[in-house]
Amino acid sequence: MRLPRQILTMHAVRRASSVPAGMVSFVPACSTADAHSLELLQDFVSRARRLFVITGAGLSTESGIPDYRSEGVGLYARTDRRPMQYSEFVRSAKARQRYWARNFVGWPQFSSHLPNSAHRALQRWEERGKLHWLVTQNVDSLHSKAGQKRLTELHGCAHRVMCLGCGAVSEREELQARFIALNPEWRAQTSGVAPDGDVFIEDEQVLHFRVPSCEACGGILKPEVTFFGDNVNKATVQFVRDRLAESDAVLVAGSSLQVYSGYRFLLAAGDRKMSVAILNIGPTRADHLAELKVSGRCGEVLSAIHSV
Ligand SMILES: [Zn+2]
User: Fold this and answer.
1) Class of 26-65+115-155+231-308 per CATH?
2) Known binder of ligand: residue 137?
3) Which whole-number Å values give the CA distances from 250 to 44, 116, 221, 245, in the listed order?
4) How high is the pLDDT of residue 69?
5) Would you say 45 is a known binding-site residue?
6) CATH number of the domain at 68-112+156-225, please?
7) Residue of 132, 143, 155, 159 marked active site
């Protein structure tokens, strides 16, 4: 639904005051969730004893991380850039060089993002025994930073790096130090950080960027993140299915569920005739499976819901 221009303008003005100067806002335009929707969502959460929550990029936009698909503000709307494909990363040293150069530049900002009131609300729900399990499609580590324990990062985490040769996992922060040591003179002009920490720099700037390999075996280093075209680990999927089977209701927060890896759990919830509620700005792939759909900002709505 398109909002009248006046409302959009009001949002733009209001956002400008709450976002640091020079930083683009990545929260899509949206009217405040109405009181009736909030009551229904409160009722939904109150009835659930073991709530299963799925989150996506819409949860992190309020922390300053853009999503991929939102109208006007998502990565796809603002640029012609598309995420790295798994096969391209594995096949091409040039693609890896480009990927890591941009990731290197984006890292200081990307790694410094903080959880917002949505992450904090879900962490409180866990503390109070309301939330049984949380599955996130985000790789930004913000749920971990908020202290969430009953958590599966379905698509991995950009704060970890794995070796495609020996499988060793290391901290992304350590790799940053190796990048700096290997590229003491390298500088690049940049603009804009993507959901996975990618930034936009010219190809010619990338040519001289040096990429380290695994210290143990010399293998290729890759973020421990599921790239597009890659599959989520089967054991992880089964683990999440088991947690879903132990739950009695499903809440989707901040995801359009366009990617099958997350959507499959909604299909499973549908098969189990579980109650499903969706909180998201804009339509989702699972709207037909939900008994309740609330349109609103995750931080604003979730922090208004009590976990009783
Ligand atoms: Zn290795």
Assistant:
1) alpha beta
2) yes
3) 10, 21, 36, 11
4) 61
5) no
6) 3.30.1600
7) 155
